[in-house]
Batch of 4 targets.
Target 1
Amino acid sequence: MKNFSTILVAVDFSDSSDNAFQLALSMAQKFTAHLVILHVINEPIDLRGFYVPHISYEKLEEEIVEGAEKMMQSFCRLHLDDFSDFETAIVPGMPYEQILQQADDSGADLIVLGTHGRTGLDHVLFGSTAEKVVRKSKFPVLTVRLDEDD
Ligand code: AMP
């Protein structure tokens, strides 16, 4: 059986990605793999200086990054127990592009993500991030569906 050495798990802090994370963590433990926990700040690029020109975007971005870092810290405190072979990454951009890019940069040999995220379009088979990652990734991708009864 293939032994994974670096697993990248993409979290958007939804129930679906929490669920995918649990599987990524079990796999990292089983394979003694390094876990890269990635969150992408999906920035509303169109809003910059266009609708609300009086807002300082530098300040806003700083606060968004700080907020995301706090969420990541409490996520790790809550979910990682005594697992220590991990790193976190918070980057701005388009989620699917950054998931692929960060997987490449970190030398991941497996990407784990939920089939759906915070957009919650349950009637579609895959959310748009999941679909694009599956279609474009050169690495194996494991998508995890959250059962309604979980
Ligand atoms: P979606 O396709 O957007 O419904 O989301 C499917 C999965 O992609 C989620 O369960 C996450 O695992 C991942 N994902 C979506 N958005 C992000 C994001 N901003 N940062 C990290 N992972 C994400």
Target 2
Amino acid sequence: MSAIHYPGASLKPHRDESLLNGHLWIFSGALQQPPRWVENGGVLDIKSATGKFVARGYYNANTDIAVRILTHDFEEDIDLEFLRRRIHSAVALREVFDPEQTNAYRLINSEGDGLPGLVVDRYADILVAQIHTAGMEQLRPLVIEALMQETGARGILLRNDGQSRRREGLQIEEPTIAAGEVPEQVQVRENGVSFFIDFWQGQKTGFFLDQRDKREALRKYTRGKRVLNCFSYTGGFSVYAALNKPPAQVTSVDISAPAIDAARQIFEMNGLDTSAHQFVVADVFDYLEEAHSQGELFDVVVLDPPAFAKSQGARTQALKAYRRLNMLGMQVLKPGGILLTCSCSGVVGMDDLLGSVSLSAQRLQRSVQLLESYTHGVDHPIHIAMPETAYLKSIFCRVQ
Ligand code: SAH
């Protein structure tokens, strides 16, 4: 028996089907009426139109997703023990990483780890957490306690500065230490490559952990090659290429000067001679046009742009932008060169990305072979009933 009595809300007839399949969202239109006695972020029980318990989750009247499900088990209370069980299971999945090689990874991937609204990245012994929803915000003290108990972390930094919090009716906050001690930066390893992470000021939680497997996959194409890494951030792809034997000669381009500074330092940390590589602060579109007009050619081009479409409404515009980018990228690629192109827009599917590369190639009259395709790494699990939460698509192609 569940020890706590939760307020309830009923679904319209036949609206429990996707929930019974395991989906974790209920849209406001599926509820018979807005629940009473539940504040935003409060936990409630969802019942079918015939009054049967279906699931337990948290509510928000401000958002299209009215309820995010936490459990389908009537016996399971939403308390410290619940959070500990979910975190324990998430920690167990990450045991696939050999800490000697990789000690930076996503520890909690929101819905994918059964904790909607919570993202936690692990950088050595420091956790960086983001709370995206009002429901998770209400659980915040318990989440922090459970994380400390289950991970033995030295400290937890909260990065609640994402704009998505506004939609939930939450404040944007300065980065704050939620538990333990958190230094200025830490040094981590990813597939044996060293990085330092500025989790106080860096983008997102400080690093783009979702590209780990693509960085590793890129290595084999870059031995002794001339590589252009567009949207390089702190040089993730670049360092992997430069550490090859024989080393690649790498140009890293990003619009953010602090990111390019960090990339240079990360090259040095890995014992690389920065004078053998180029570090460019520029808009990638401008850079590629200029490079093409100068007749520059590379063996390998990486295109890992920020999300061009954050909503369904922005999709058409975004598809155009991907097409333009892929064309510009191909124009500076030698015949037989390798293109790694990515999209992290949720509303742009793998088919869209393939279509964009294919159209760009047609326009340039170049033929393309698809070599490898990827989504996220294993530390970004996706709930099987919610494929729409898989945002990242990456493909490796050879362009003749
Ligand atoms: N590939 C990186 C992550 C890229 S994230 C990695 O492996 O770590 C996207 C990056 O694009 C950010 O660093 C952002 O500063 C940069 N950016 C956004 N718009 C840009 C533009 N128009 N030109 C160049 N860089 C841009």
Target 3
Amino acid sequence: MSSATNGEKDFHQSSKADLFNHPDFYQIDDLLTEEHKLIRGTVRDWVKKNISPIIEDAAQQAKFPHHLLKGLGEIGAFGPQLPAEYGCGGLDYISYGIIMQELERCDSGIRSTASVQGSLVMYPIFKFGSEEQKRKYLPKLATGELMGCFGLTEPDHGSNPAGMTTNFKDMGDHLLLNGAKMWISNAPFADVAVVWAKNEQGKIRGVIVERGMEGFTTPETHNKWSLRASATGELVFDNVKVPKENLLPGVEGLKGPLTCLNSARYGISWGAIGAAMDCYDSALRYTKERHQFGKPIAGFQLQQKKLAEMITEITKAQLLSWRLGNLMNTGKATPAQISMCKRNNVDIALKIAREARQMHGGMGITGEYPIMRHMMNLESVITYEGTHDIHLLILGMEITGENAFQ
Ligand code: TGC
Ligand code: FAD
């Protein structure tokens, strides 16, 4: 079971109300169903009540708020896009996106936990697992009774996972796993890890490793300036004996983990809009309230330019993600379309966070406002799940047919 330790009492409850209201400049709500809006309202209310009051303190203390996991499971944040027959949400991809948006509106680290659980742990078990594996793990992962992590990146293989050296040997009655993964979200407390490793033929396969298996450790990565409310760690495998039934039977090769990343990257495209909206919403309120030179700073053209450009970029990002969600729902979305959306939306969110930071003046560097936390979080979001430049190269290859990676 999870090594969860931090409870609600470990965090200072802020008395400041979360006043967030989402901008909808192009009436994009008209493109959503009543169910989508209901889901958004439910998640937003839960986030305002449970996460907003403690998130700043969690980030300042660099502690993951474990006590939120049960509630996240209850609101359907874990695997909402997977079928109800395995205890999951049975919702469409737009609903999944909306949930990621509402979580990241508060903090990218909390969205990260949910993305990893739903798209990188539950999805591969659903898509590539045996019926026994699905029945054993998915219902408990959906409620948060079990938490998972996804091990692809290694110390020497980040953007180029094909070069991984983590490997396993078939020992007859079990697999013997050796190697190490780095930068793994949820690793320090995960009960299960979906790990990608090479077999003796050099083919990449997925294996489910459980906490408690001898030789398996998950040291935490400390001193991050980003995603401080998310737990990151390593996965170290020293002659770990993994039962053969823990091998994911349904896939071989790099397309296994990359297929999972399609789902997670899509969710991040919505999540980043959430962070951008929160920065915009806060900047709009602040510039109307803050007076300098005898009037609200919102009355100065330079501030209006920033706000007008922010809402324009948010609106374009909303339309990209909405359209991509519909393509995901019909199984038509391509990896390059997903790259465009993840890359664009995280980029605009980071730029909006930087502008909003300036608009809050000195207050923008404090924990009184969420801006600096979003800004620092987004520095990870623009790097993980494929860096900004890797997504550009994926797009470049799609439109030219030429591979510029190597
Ligand atoms: P390449 O030769 O192009 O492809 C190998 C095989 O994979 C297939 N493929 C895909 N399949 C599904 N979806 C995709 N998006 C796919 N992209 C490629 C491809 O068709 C081929 O299949 P087959 O049958 O021919 O074998 O592979 P490559 O080695 O040249 O690499 C391509 C590249 C650079 C784009 C890829 O390696 C890449 O995306 N690198 C970035 C690595 C990355 O994104 N890592 C993320 C780690 S997980 C993480 O960051 C989680 S953070 C979570 C959080 O906290 O929210
Ligand atoms: P590198 O690959 O070394 O890249 C360094 C720089 O070189 C980048 O700017 C990159 O764009 C550039 N570059 C690389 N190749 C090329 C090229 N061909 N052409 C031009 N430029 C290039 N991984 C997981 O598996 N699971 C997780 O849960 C997970 N969570 C994470 C959480 C956090 C907080 C962070 C920071 C990372 C996480 N990652 C996770 C790892 C993440 O996916 C990698 O950091 C990312 O893929 C980049 O790899 P790297 O850090 O090794 O950078």
Target 4
Amino acid sequence: MTLTTATNAQAAPKIDLIIDTDPGADDVVALLFALASPDELNVRALTTVAGNVRLDKTSRNARLAREWAGREEVPVYAGAPRPLMRTPIYAEDIHGKEGLSGIAVHEPRKGLAKGSAITYLIDTLKSAEPHSITIAMLGPQTNLALALIQEPGIVQGIKEVVVMGGAHFNGGNITPVAEFNLFADPQAAEVVLNSGVKLTYLPLDVTHKILTSEAHLNQIAALNNNASRLVGSILNEYIKGDMEHYGLPGGPVHDATVVAYLLKPQLFSGRSVNVVVDSREGLTFGQTIVDWYDGLKAPKNAFWVESGDAQGFFDLLTERLARLK
Ligand code: BDR
Ligand code: CA
């Protein structure tokens, strides 16, 4: 009895988490990773947004991910069907027509939760304990931006927003300077950057340092459960595009790095910086301008993660996938 009490007293508090996502191959890997980690992550809901594919498909794929993870009790709310201002863009060339490379999709057993993701975010964050909820942002930031525009006071409920997006040292992946999630809705990212919330960015700078290798894929395959087979099939197809485009020996698993960061931040390093996103029409549309050397002496509005431990990442992912069926 005493031992149990002592252990509980020492356990780190769970992270109260909302995952905003546009699944998306790497999003689904991130969702399986997060949903396999209930000891650390209290996933309250998945909120979906148009991004890699249209909203109906990202919402279906999020529901598939929770089904595959055996976590159908986690509600999925559909959010914005298009960006704040720009013309919608999709990434079917990378993620496939259904938004899930390498595997067949079906209609999931359980439907969407009633109500929109934006209303869910407003209601939840408004009534939350001060600075208690973390948001993992795995796609364009449209849902949170719309919620912040309608109810700026919801900032009080947010502990931290952890974004997969942006690029500085690495260069872009959709234009020479812009990363897809920021390019898909720069005005939304701007709203979040200017909102005063605590922000962490995992940009291409770090995700391109955490690449798959044959050994990493083999360690996942060796689990030989349904989750590992799904992740193996998704990744083997998904990484092809980046490996060819960049001449890389493996591919990044972008969105899953956000989950690894939440579970084990000690795998990563970065710096507090001032970040601005360019939302003007032109060649630099969607670019993140990062004042790494503090030349502007401007307020530091984000923690910019610049590197990470690739083997540590794949060991953690493998360990968590082993917990699923
Ligand atoms: C990001 O863009 C999307 O295509 C991926 O899902 C990831 O969120 C990488 O640039
Ligand atoms: Ca994504």
